[in-house]
Amino acid sequence: MSSLVPRSIGPLVLRSAATFPAVGIVGPRQSGKSSLVRSLFPGHRLAVMESPDVLRAAMQDPRGFLDSFEANDGAVLDEIQRAPEILSYLLEYIDRDLRAGRRMGRWILTGSESLMLSQRITQSLAGRIAMHEVLPMDALELAEFPARRGDPRQSLARAVVQGGYPALKAERPDRSTWFDAYVTTYIERDVRNILRVGDLSNFQRFLALCAGRTGQLVNLAQLGADAGIAQSTARAWMSVLEATYIVRLIPGWYGNINKRLVKAPKLHFVDTGLACALLGITDESMLEMHPLRGALVESWVAGELLKAQAVRGLRARIFHWRDQNAAEADLVVDLNGKLTVIEVKSARTVQPDWARALERMTNALPAGTPVERVIVHGGGDDMPALPGTTLVPWSRVAEFARGVFGGKPDAAAPKSPAKRVVVKKARKTQKKSAPPKSTGRGVVRKTAKKAGRAKR
């Protein structure tokens, strides 16, 4: 991976390193964790726990292993989940550093198994470590790679199929071969290490079935039946996929809506490039005709929101909404009392009836709830506006996602001349009225002055 492409989370990691004695970086394999910490902490000595000799030294003589970093600015302990026992010894060294007044950020830990690592940290390093997630690159980060001769024009389908793993952009390997190797390495190392699965082919079949359900509600009973495993096994395997950042289960949003809502979480692959590879989608033309195109686009948008959330150091702010009559909002961001309700459409032509489900949800909200209704679509910037609804073209999703979580505008991002429409619910008994005026900044075109434009 090229070290010249900065990661947006870098400044946040450095701020944590200035105030905590240890910083934890977790995320999926090949998301760029090691490259990030090497660029941010060049004076720290690197120890890769997946190397047999390093792992053996750490396990056989933990104190001697940690003593060996005394002469350095600090240590980067890469893939620390391979030697979780060392965290108990590390506490002793961190406390000694604090008593001696040594500078913060001397211990940097990385791992690709969030569940196991966070459990150990909770037991051993609570209050002494700041944790951050490094996910595959978002669209703004990928755009920082130098353009290469012969690359086709960027499109929504290409963005979904390509995914965000840095190596695919920097090193340009054969995509199918790279993902095959990725899945094999992931299953052989991470899955076997966590589950001790005997027949790994069953797990790989389960993984492929999950790819076919991205963007859909989770039904573990049906998923287990299709995979030929018990529901309890399907639940355990799903937990592993989530703990290793392959999938993310997006919970339903409840709030104070006075209706019975579907409580099942929605399954989204963190990287749609991997989901496409598991489904046998090898290029953009295949995705255009694929029955899961809409679901994969929705997962891609969810992934951009997850990445923007991680860059801000936030968690558990993204939901979905669906009522008993199948009216739904694909994604809901609940942040600081404001809801951003998002519908995702892969089509290139905006239709007025797309906003109906969003209106249905906002009508059920308590009076005075700040709401922004958003439609992400596969078209360009020149779509006619919909009253009371923000339109976000696919090419600006990453910029929009950062804005949702309060991120500063990216210097490399295209500037928007438009404003975002913010809808606030007045009273439940009131009839629909004219949409309120735009009050904030955004990445969409201004609401049309003439109502007729919204009907085109």
Give an account of the 3D structure.
The protein is α/β, with parallel strands linked by helices. It folds into 3 domains: 124 residues, P-loop containing nucleotide triphosphate hydrolases (Rossmann fold), CATH 3.40.50.300; 167 residues, Arc Repressor Mutant, subunit A (Orthogonal Bundle), CATH 1.10.10; 138 residues, no CATH class. Helices cover 39% and strands 16% of the residues. The longest helix is centred in the middle third of the chain and has 21 residues. The C terminus is likely disordered.
Summarize the structure.
This protein is an alpha/beta fold. The chain is built from 18 helices and 16 strands.
List keywords for this structure.
Rossmann fold; 16% strand; Arc Repressor Mutant, subunit A; disordered C terminus; five-stranded parallel beta sheet; 456 residues; globular; single chain; alpha/beta; six-stranded mixed beta sheet
Topology:
Blueprint: H1 10-19, E1 22-26, H2 33-40, E2 44-48, H3 52-60, H4 62-67, E3 74-78, H5 86-100, E4 107-111, H6 114-124, E5 129-133, H7 139-142, H8 156-162, H9 166-170, H10 175-195, H11 200-211, E6 216-217, H12 220-227, H13 231-243, E7 247-250, E8 266-269, H14 272-278, H15 284-288, H16 293-311, E9 318-322, E10 328-335, E11 338-344, H17 356-363, E12 370-377, E13 390-393, H18 397-404, E14 419-420, E15 423-424, E16 440-441
Parallel strand pairs: 1-4, 1-5, 2-3, 3-4, 11-12, 12-13
Antiparallel strand pairs: 6-8, 7-8, 9-10, 10-11, 12-15, 14-16
